[in-house]
Every structure is written in structure tokens, then in C-alpha cells.
Amino acid sequence: MKFSELGVSFMSINKKMVEKISEKTKNNSTLKEFIMKMLVEESKGLGWYKDRYIAELEKTVKDGAD
Amino acid sequence: MRIQSIVIKNYRQYKDLALNFVDNGKHDLHIIIGSNGVGKTNLLNATVWCLYGDEPHLGDKSRALPRISLSALDEAREKGMGNCDVIVSITASDGGGIFKFERVQSFNVSNAFERKSKFSVLVTDEGGNHNYYEDDKAKECINQYMPERIREYFFFDGERLDRYFITEQGSKIKDSIHTISQVQLLSTMREHLENVINEKQKEAGKKSPGIANLYNEREEITKQITKLTEDISDLNTQVNTSKLAISKAQEILHGQEDSLEFDKKYTILTSKKEYLEGELKSNKLDILKFIRDYQILLSFYPHIKRTYDIIKEKDSAGMLPPNIDKNFLKQMLDEHKCLVCNRDLFDKEESEVQQLIDRLKVSSELSNLLMSMKSDLEMKIDEAKRYKEKKGKLLDQRRRIEKEIQEVNRDINEIDLKLKSYSNKEKIANAHKERTMHEGLIETNNKKIGAYEHQLKQQNQKLNDLNEKLDKALSQQKECELLKKLIHFAKDANSVIEEVEHELMTEVRNNMQRKTMEYFDRLIWKKNTYANIELDEEYKLDLIHKYGYRCVGSCSAAERALLALSFTLALHGESGFDALLFIDTPVSRVSDTNRENSAVVLGEVSKHKQIIMTFAPSEYSSEIQRVLEPIASTLVKLYTEDERSTQLEWEVI
Description:
heterodimer; A: mainly alpha; 3 helices; flat; B: alpha/beta; Rossmann fold; 6-stranded mixed β-sheet; 17 helices; about 60% helix; about 15% strand; elongated
């Protein structure tokens, strides 16, 4: 997954972090996508983070995450 | 990210300044020389202000002055302008992209008060496409390349290099490293996710539907409804049975029903006759008493009348003395006081009382007695007058009773005659009894049915409510399943984040330790003196001498600055924010002997990283010149004539 696919204009997340996350979620792409998406959000400095997390979790689960 | 140029207009000493930092391809090193007061540190401030909006390195003198150039203000006043802008533009590059950051602050010319400001960035990608962002979006852009929270690792005050491991010890360094290496992002994310998990777990707990209980309750109500329905059905059957029995009884009673009525009437009439006979007896006794009482009264009536007339006549003629108690008056005289108001009597008053007593010729007791008799005689006379009336009433009553008895006897005789004509009286009586009993049963059972139907209605309502609850609970159960799924997923995510966080923290610390030592070892002029660098878990740094002792406290200022530089470079590499270093007066605390070594090190670093440095002429010694000038990409000298406006004196590329 590319950062541009996450809809973020400017992105610079620690590459090692990304590699490790990818490695630990290699069998679960949904989990990887969720973590990466929220990581990008966190890097922008989240204010009311709960709504964002809950919305993303609900979307992910409804889309059929195990 | 490297800075290509800085253009400053009307910022403090800089009325109009443009600095270009062109890389010569070997050393991306840029030297700015300026005397004290010329504005070296304000060059650093202008850069930080443009990118982040504040000026952390202001001296006391600058702090007291407005941000806008004083000479620019004067010129604007002369021209009659209302506003004057401070503008700092920084053009930077990263990869293939070009970023032009610009901050504009408008000032009121008359009072030098700040007005609106604007921060923007124009991004040009490799393909020449432009994107323009303002304010928060522009801020987001700079934070993606040189985050504000770690800007101190890009824009240095030279003094800080010396004090780095004294003032930045412990947790602050750890926090900074975790921030710069973005491990902090994972910690924050994990913390946020844990909060969300807790919240969702609570929500799931609240939504726990207790479906089993609802099912049990519904079963119980259903049982009650079934029982009530059966009971109502039984009662209806009984009612129908009763109706059938009544119908049968009515068949028997049909045409013969009157006998029972007559039987009933006979009983009633008999009772009435008994009552009337008792009343007649009582009436006879009343008449006897009446005769006896009036016999005496009527025989004395003439005497009573005459006595009454005499008393009345005397009383009317005023011949009877007033009704005064003579003894009472005498007692007043004996006690010498008025027995009415309890006041002492004067002699004159006593004399008057005595005269009153003397005037009473007839006894008052007799007068009292006569008046009392008069009243009694009046009553007797009135009673005698009512004789005829009372006698009439008693006789009328007797006649009425006798008449009623006569009528009752006649009715009884008639009914008796009719009853004698009916046959099978027992069967009719039984049928009547049966009918009455079933009528009673129907009434009782109908009441029960009404009550049971009310209960049934209530139970059905309960059942409906319960069914609704069950539907909701079942729906919530689905939501709960979704929640559980969500929580499970979030926990999985948290578990991955925690693992990555832990591994990264360990790796970052180990790498930081290794890389700092590598940089330090490569840059330090005293080779084979230091064995290692240690970073404990709290990121407390220490330098280990080759003989094994800890020696960071005993290092020279130049060595400490080098250690800080090594640490910073390691951080840049480890974090991925491989940006420039802008160091204001890098060797201010370094002794003359080590300045050349420091210059060599900075020159070495500039092979791989843009370094912009400002020097005072006194710091920019011949040793430094000898090392840096041949390799510098840019060499600039700033000068000022009146300390109000700084300009470029010369520029060497």
C-alpha cells in the first residue's frame, strides 16, 4: 500500500515502522490498512481521536474484518 | 530537506535580503559571517519564524523591538502607507519536490502593531505541477518534513550544543528520540486505541441483552395466558351449561310458573298479616292509655281554667309584685357591698336598698310560685285542647289497620284457593330452584370471566412488550457481536502496535547508541581515546573512555558539542527526517585549539547534509577559514551601517 492511496498529501512515516507493521500483519491486510491509516492520522495530530478510531473500526468490521 | 534560498523583506534588521544556498556538489556548506548586532541570530529567527511562526532565539534587544524593520516603517510613513508587510520566503527541496514556504505579517505603520498574517506553501512536484496550501495545510506540510516538535534538532543555537547533555538529560531526550523516531506515534496510537477498546467494552457490557431471562419471562407469561384462556373457556362452558339448565327449568316452569309466585305471595301476605295484627294490638294499648290520661285532665279542666284566668288577670293588672329576691338585697346590706359588681356600697346606696326592701309589701316567693303555676296551667289547657285531634288520629289508625288486615285476609284466601288447584308442586319448586341457582352461577361466572379477560388483556400486553424487548435484544445481540468483533480487531491492532513499539524502542536505542558512536568516532580528532557511548533505557548518554571510566562530564566544550552533533546526526538518520542543520555560532564555546577540529568535522558532515552556519568574525578564525573556505558552497558577509539595516557585503560562490 502506498501512502498516496491513503489520501494523504504529505507523508513521512518511519520506514522501519512501516516495515515492521507490514511484517507483523502480512497475513491480515485489513489489519495493516487500519493501523497504517490511523498511524497517518496520528502523525497529523488527532484532536477528537475517538470518533475517527471508532468510525474506522466500525467501517473495517462492517467490511468483514475477522 | 535542504534550503535553497531565504528571502527576507522588512524583518527586523533585514529590509531586503536574499540568500541563495547553492550546493557545489561536494560540500553543502554555507557560511554567514557577521559582527555582533548585525543580525546573525535573527537570521535563524527569521527562518524559524517563517516555518513555525515564532522566534525562540530572540535576544533582549530584539525582543523589545517590533518584528518589522524600523527603516521600512519610516519609509512607509514617508510614503503615507497605512500598512507595511514583513515577508520571509524559504525555498526548500526534498527529493524531486520544491517547496516555497512564505509567511507574511502585516503591520500598522502608525503604531507598528501587528495585523493579519498568512502562512503558505507552494509545492511543485517533479512533473512541474503546482499545489498551493495555506495555514493549517501549509503547517501540515512543514510538519511532514521538519516537524515543529523537533525543530530544535534542525535549527541550533551554538550554545545549546555545548549544554546539550547537561540540560537535555534523561526523559526529555528519550521523549525527543521517541518523537523524532516516531515511536511516540505508536505509543499515542496504542493509548488512543486502548481508550476506544475500553469504551467499546463498556458499551458491549451495557448492551448485554440477557436474552435468556427475557425468554424465561416470556415463557412464564405465555403459561399464564394459556391458563387464563383455559379458565375463561371453562367458565364459558359453565355459563353455557347454566344457560342450558335454565332453559330446561323454564320448560318445566312454562305455564305453571304462577304457582310459585302465588306461593311466594302467600308467604309475604302471611307475614304482612302478622305485622298488621301486632300493629293493631299496639294501637289498642295506645287508645287505652289515651283514655286514662285524658279522663283525669278533663275532669280537672274547669278548675285549671279558672285558676289560670285569675292569675292572668292579676298579672295583667300589675297586682303581682316584681320578681325581686328580698334576701339577696338583705345580704348586700349585711356585707355592705354590691353582690352584682362586687363593689363596696356607699351609705347613700345602702339607704336606697333598705327603702326598696321596705316597699316590697307582698312576698316575692309567692309571686314566683304564682307565675310558675301560670305556665303549668297554660300547658294543661293546651293539652286539653288537643284531645279531639289525638283521639281522631288513634281511631283513624285503628280503622286503617283493621281495613288492611281485612284485605290481606281476602288475598290470602284467594291465593290459597289457587294453590290448591295446582299439581306437582315439588317438581316446579325444584325447577325454580335450579333456575335460580344457575342464574346465580351465570352471574358469578360472568364476573370471573370479566376479571380473567382483564388479566388476559394485561398479560397479552406484557407479552407484546416482552416480544418487543426480545426483538430489540436480539438486534442488540447482533450489535454486540459487531462490537465484540470490533473490540477483537482493535485488540489485535493494539497487540501489533505494542510489539512494533517495543521492538522499535529497543532498536532505536541500540541504533542511536551505535550510530552516535560511529559519527563521534569518525569525527573526533582524538582517535583511540573513547571506547564507547552508552545510552541507558532513559536515554542518559555517557561516553566511556578506552580505560573504562565514564567521561562525558570531563570532556572539552568542543568534544561535548561534537557529541551533541553526532547524537543529532544519528537522530536525523534514525528518524528519517534527514533535513539540514542551521547552527548559529557553532564554535562560540569551543576553544581555539579545537576550532579547527570542529571545522573539519562540520566540513565532513556537509558532504552528506546541508549545513548553514553563522559566525562572528572573532569566531571565524584563520584556522576555520583555512578549513572551511575552500570547501564552502556559499560564503556571505553581512554588514550594517547604523544597526537598523543589514545588507550583504559580499558573497562568494
